[in-house]
Backbone:
């Protein structure tokens, strides 16, 4: 379809050019001299239309080439984006695993160290309950009620064993 259009516009361009030349040649023939002006005007109109059509075809070809180039670049960019997205997801998963492993290491360390110091520094049940409430994201009022009995003997022993400044 595109080539047919190009041949037709080339034919129109040639016809217009031939009419222009015929119009100038007819000026030398006295009998046909009176048809010179209309043939030249028609030749100029047809030749101008042919030039316009040829220019339009050339511009369309250039745009189609540019569109094809941009589509290739777009496909390359999409492929590159896919690989980069995969890398990002991999990095995020790796970082989450590292954070989880470090968190587990911290938990193991705390569990190991708390056992050592729990013997020398007794922690009251109330403090443990408050800590557990915070860990469970509950309020202290849900854990400790007015009927809760607080045993302070371990706390008092710990205070007495400490070196307090004398008055």
Residues:
């Amino acid at each position: 379809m595109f080539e047919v259009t190009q041949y037709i516009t080339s034919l129109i361009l040639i016809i217009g050019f031939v009419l222009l030349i015929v119009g100038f040649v007819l000026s030398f023939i006295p009998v046909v001299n009176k048809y010179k002006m209309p043939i030249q005007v028609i030749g100029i109109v047809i030749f101008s239309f042919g030039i316009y059509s040829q220019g339009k075809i050339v511009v369309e070809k250039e745009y189609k080439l540019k569109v094809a180039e941009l589509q290739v670049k777009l496909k390359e960019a999409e492929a590159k984006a896919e690989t980069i997205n995969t890398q990002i997801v991999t990095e995020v998963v790796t970082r989450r695993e590292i954070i989880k492993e470090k968190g587990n290491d911290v938990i193991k360390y705390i569990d190991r160290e708390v056992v050592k110091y729990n013997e020398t520094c007794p922690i009251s049940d109330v403090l443990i309950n408050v800590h557990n409430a915070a860990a469970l994201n509950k309020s202290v009022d849900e854990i400790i009620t007015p009927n809760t009995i607080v045993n302070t003997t371990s706390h008092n022993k710990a205070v007495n064993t400490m070196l307090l400044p004398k008055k």
Summary: The longest helix spans residues 36-120. The two ends are 110 Å apart (CA to CA). The mean pLDDT is 78. Residues 123-167 form one domain.
